Amino acid sequence: MLNYSFVDKNESKSDNLKMDNSSSLESVVVINCILNAPLMLTSITGNALVLVAILRTPSLRSAPSTIFLCSLAITDFLVGLVGQPVYIAIKLHYLTGGFIRKATFSMSVSLCGVSLATITAISVDRLLALHYHMTYPNLMTTKRALYASASLWFVSILLPCLTVWKLRVFNLIAGVYITICFVLSSASYIKIYLIVRHHQIQIHAHQQAVDNFNVSVNIPDSNNMIISKKRALKTFVYFICMIFCYLPFLSYSLLRATLVIGYEENWSFAETVVFLNSSVNPFLYCWCNREIRTSTVKVVRKMMCKQTEVASELDV
Q1: Could you give the CA distance from residue 162 to residue 169 in angstroms, rounded to a whole number?
Q2: Rounded to whole angstroms, how far apart are CA atoms 36 and 84?
Q3: Cβ atoms within 10 A of the Cβ of 7, count?
Q4: What are the Cα distances from residue 54, in Å, to 65, 234, 286, 302?
Q5: How far apart are CA 142 and CA 52, in angstroms?
Q6: Which of 10, 99, 215, 300 is most deeply buried (CB count within 10 A of its CB)?
Q7: 242-253: pLDDT as tens digits
Q8: 165 secondary structure, DSSP code
């Protein structure tokens, strides 16, 4: 009898532990889905407003660099409209079947991959605009910007689709993909910093020559150089936000690819942080670009005026 009671106690303890683990996992899933709901609405609303603002401003539509911003805004809009609802449905087990779950999850990750690649392209574009500030309009045309954006979409969507049947390969490619984007963006902004630093040293030497010896020194400077420098420094915020949002998912992907850890629900918050990037980007557009900020404010005011007019007509 003592032995049977001992076994019963152990079994009851193990059952309690399993129940505690399942309840904790359920709470993680619920919290994760609750966090994704407002992020999804922010992504849809914010990026839609930015797209409308760009389309209504002719000066913004004509700039090649705006092509990358439009591509990023469209991607982030789709992340909120398609990617996050699919992700929430997977977490709540509304989407069943191994292949369907992998395919839909791969689609969500593909959209985030396009967003990451476009942010990287923006950093490279800012480097080109700063380094070749005199010939940049001829170097980066609207057609080339469109081709580059289309190529990023193709590659970012194709890679996860090819690895949808092997999760380990998918995680390995995702880790390598994110690492390449990190390296390219880091190298671009390091080069931008060196160019800006060199330019400041030249200006300082010029000022000292004028003050001390009253001679003129030719400095390779222009309005394009100054504008490119300001835009490059502002878009550095994209890079900081990208590192913050994608670094946890990068760590998780590499750990799973090397079989150091298996699937753990707690790490799903890393995926939510990736989605956070799509919600933050519209605010960064408005902060970095005065024209986008002004046009977005006008769009919001027009929408508010129309709503008040409709409300007044209904009251009458």
Answers
A1: 10
A2: 7
A3: 10
A4: 12, 19, 11, 15
A5: 19
A6: 300
A7: 889 999 888 888
A8: T
